[in-house]
Amino acid sequence: MILLVTLFIVVGILLVWFGRRIVNSAGVADGQIVYMDTHGKGRVTKSLYSKRLGLSGKPDYLLLRKGVHIPVEVKSSPMPIKGAYRSHKLQVAAYCHLIEEYFGVRPTYGIIKYSDGTYNVEYCHELEKELTDIVGYMHADISAANVIRSHRYLNRCLDCSFQIVCGDNLTR
Ligand code: SF4
């Protein structure tokens, strides 16, 4: 029993240390980690939900900086040459939105931690508007009888869980 408890403590310490290492590296230094998706440390253990957008999700990490929660999204790939992809920025914008609705304080930015550096995504009103529009299109697509495929990537279809029911499936 004592061995098991010791093991849990050691694993816990290692997770905190590893998380700290991730956010400390390449410029994500300041701020207390209040949540890690790996083991639910801190106040946020369930997905955050936005009633306004009908959206839910959890960032990989939440930092608390000067009373404001900042989402950190970790990508295993290197940073794209031209900076973060639009889809990555929108993902962080979604977390910023969820955080604002949950905590009542708007983060002015979120962080994407790539394997070789970090990218700060400014959570400005233009990006929020883009997010709101995209989520609106998504909801419309979800309730539509038929949605036209928006890409030509076979691999994407190969990995897709809608493959069996999708009439636009590229694997056929
Ligand atoms: S199987 Fe259909 S839904 Fe899935 S990625 Fe391909 S086109 Fe999109």
Number of domains: 1
Counted by DSSP, the helix tally is 4
Distance between the termini: 54 Å
Specify Rg, calculated over alpha carbons: 19 Å
Bound molecules: iron/sulfur cluster
Q: Proportion of β residues?
A: 15-25%
Give the overall average pLDDT: 83
Strand order of the largest sheet: 1-4-5-6-7
Poorly predicted tracts of residues: none
SSE string, helix = H, strand = E?
Answer: HEEEEEHEEHH
Measured as a percent range, the helix fraction is 25-40%
What would you say this structure looks like, in words?
There is one protein chain. The protein has 172 residues and is an alpha+beta fold. It has helices at 2-24, 86-103, 125-143, 154-158; strands spanning 32-36, 48-50, 55-57, 61-65, 68-74, 109-114, 117-122. The protein is globular. Iron/sulfur cluster (SF4) binds at residues 149, 156-157, 160, 162-163, 166, 168-170.
Tags for this model:
172 residues, alpha+beta, five-stranded mixed sheet, two-stranded antiparallel sheet, binds iron/sulfur cluster
List the helices and strands and how they pair.
Layout (H helix, E strand, L loop, with lengths): L1 H23 L7 E5 L11 E3 L4 E3 L3 E5 L2 E7 L11 H18 L5 E6 L2 E6 L2 H19 L10 H5 L14
Parallel strand pairs: 5-6
Antiparallel strand pairs: 1-4, 2-3, 4-5, 6-7
Helix pairs in contact: 2-3
Bound molecules: iron/sulfur cluster.
